[in-house]
Amino acid sequence: MTRKKDKEIQIKFTVNEEQKRRLDAFAKQRELSVPQFAKLTALGVRMTPAPVVFSEEKELLEEILQEFVVLKDDDGKPKDTILITSSIERQKKLLTKIKTYLKK
Fold first, then answer.
1. What is the Cβ-side half-sphere exposure of residue 85, based on CA atoms within 13 angstroms?
2. 64 vs 78: CA distance, rounded Å
3. pLDDT of residue 83
4. pLDDT at 53
5. Taking a C-beta distance cutoff of 8 angstroms, is the pair 32, 40 a contact?
6. Closest alpha carbon to 50 in 22, 24, 28, 30
7. Tens place of pLDDT for every residue, the chain, 104 residues?
8. What is the rounded distance in angstroms from the CA atom of residue 96 to the CA atom of residue 90?
9. Which of 23, 32, 93, 95 is the most exposed place for a label (fewest CB within 10 A)?
10. How far apart are CA 69 and CA 78, in angstroms?
11. Phi-psi category of 44—alpha, beta or left, where left has phi over 0 and alpha has psi -120 to 50?
12. Is there a contact between 68 and 81 (Cβ–Cβ < 8 Å)?
């Protein structure tokens, strides 16, 4: 038995420049095209913006992650995380960077 293919139907709508700018911004935040965003929104799909990680944040997070080691169990599953650092001075330097970043 062959399943009958649904007929594709195109829907068009008109927006002003401000509405187009907002649709562009919302779609970009969710890493979608404007038509994809409009379709999903019209169908009631709830979406959250893609997380934005700035390069400065990313560099700081990568530096922090280098200070941690994940301990794994015999099956290779994460069991615990410990902080390792070469010195107290290194810890102080890292904490200073974090405090400076958080004050921005």
1. 14
2. 18
3. 65
4. 61
5. yes
6. 30
7. 566 778 889 999 999 999 999 999 888 888 889 999 999 999 998 887 766 666 677 777 777 777 776 677 777 777 776 666 667 777 777 778 777 777 76
8. 10
9. 95
10. 10
11. left
12. yes
Which stretches within the chain are classed as H helix? 17-29, 34-42, 55-65, 88-103
pLDDT at 21: 92
Identify which of 55, 58, 64, 65 has the alpha carbon closest to the alpha carbon of residue 96. Answer: 64
- 27: its two tokens: 């779609």
- For 56-68, the DSSP string reads HHHHHHHHHHTTE
